[in-house]
Amino acid sequence: MKAKHERFLKELLETPSPTGYEVPVADAVRARLAGTADEVRTDVMGSVHALLSGKGGGPSFMLAAHMDEIGLMVTYISDDGFLSVAPIGGLDAAILPGLRVDVHAASGTLRGVVGRKPIHLIKADERKSVTPIDQLVIDLGLPGKEVKKLVSVGDAITFGVGFERFGKHMAVSRAFDDKVGVWIAVRVLERLAKKGRAAGDFIAAATVQEEIGTRGATTSAYGVNPDVAVAFDVTHATDYPGIDKTKHGDIACGGGPVIARGPNINPLVFERLVAAAKKEGIPYQIEAEPSVTGTDARAIQVARGGIPCGLVSVPLRYMHTPTEVVCLKDLEATVNLLVRFALDLDETACFVPGVGAAPSCVVPEDDEPEDTGLFDARPADDDVEEDAEAEAPGTQDAAEADGPDAEDVPAAEPQPDAEADAPANGDAPDGEPASGDQPADDDAAWLFAPKDMKDKE
Ligand SMILES: [Zn+2]
What we know:
Blueprint: H1 3-14, H2 23-33, E1 39-42, E2 48-52, E3 61-66, E4 71-77, E5 82-88, E6 100-105, E7 108-114, E8 137-139, H3 144-150, E9 156-159, E10 164-166, E11 170-173, H4 176-194, E12 202-207, H5 215-224, E13 228-236, H6 245-248, E14 258-261, H7 267-280, E15 285-288, H8 296-301, E16 309-316, E17 324-327, H9 328-343, H10 398-401, H11 418-421, H12 444-447, H13 451-456
Helix pairs in contact: 1-4, 4-9, 7-9
The protein binds zinc ion.
């Protein structure tokens, strides 16, 4: 990964964006794409949509990734200045004691710590128990009066840790879920601009509020109204001790992008993603999703009259903890996969199951629905191609700018045919709640169970 791209990844990861408080990271996305995208719009939810116009004659393609991260919210401030909190998104109370946190107050960011009584002072049986989140408190090291002046109920809190590389090609951060996806969407747009654009419009969508029920993707899918979409999110790596591969599949960090298969995924989008990986020699992994996923794909697929949607992920260890781990090689490979997918979309692309064929089928012009998407109003003459990454010589990054874009694609052989390798995804294991029995969307219990929680069940 080029240093300038890694700096942007670090910026995204370290910019706080707990669900509902995504503005700082949205600012970073807008700033990064201002010179490359033809148009950048932000909807009233706060989701950012960056358009790279197509050369003409292809379907519009939205790549959606959510920019919110999990966190905590201040619910109560005691007279002596300790904060009580509630989780934003799916948060395991066991990881909190001993953690440093950032409290994002109007007056600025304050360091806090989640304390736990020392081992010497607790009874033996208490040592085994997990303190529920509503019984934990955050210590700001300030007098009560001052805390009440600085902090407000409703202020958001994030884990007080940043991005760091470690091991071989590995990196750790609190918020790869899913700001790694925002990075990928931005990089795909930049690469498409550099490669002379796809036939159809490309929209990089950085969505809000995924962690509490794919809410931003719901409005983005409606507003952008793309012809085809891919949601990008992280998925559970199963390559460390204690994870049952028979239940969760065989997904390894460094094994390449993960392409999901199942009813939440348009089968022709799936086939095109696999074809793109094979064409580029990108190793990939297949993930069985026998029911609706908890990702943005859940909302996008059933928007309007239905939008053909795929789901691509990178494997991630220790989801929703301060030490989420990814392999950086998977990120680069995913960008290459999605760029190839976008470039291979042409006017013959058809995604109707049983009618469309991968890679192509002809859609009679009369049948094309009227596009009422967000970007219809743009002038016709703004299709000017630009080299988005051109930089003046002598800048810090100039040397890198000349290198090939695909330098870090893992060299491993692609996996055999998807069909042969895909785990059977039709049958839920006995005793498991049938995933098709999820309550309807308006059931709050389901809405607030993010993908990861659901997947753990
Ligand atoms: Zn998540």
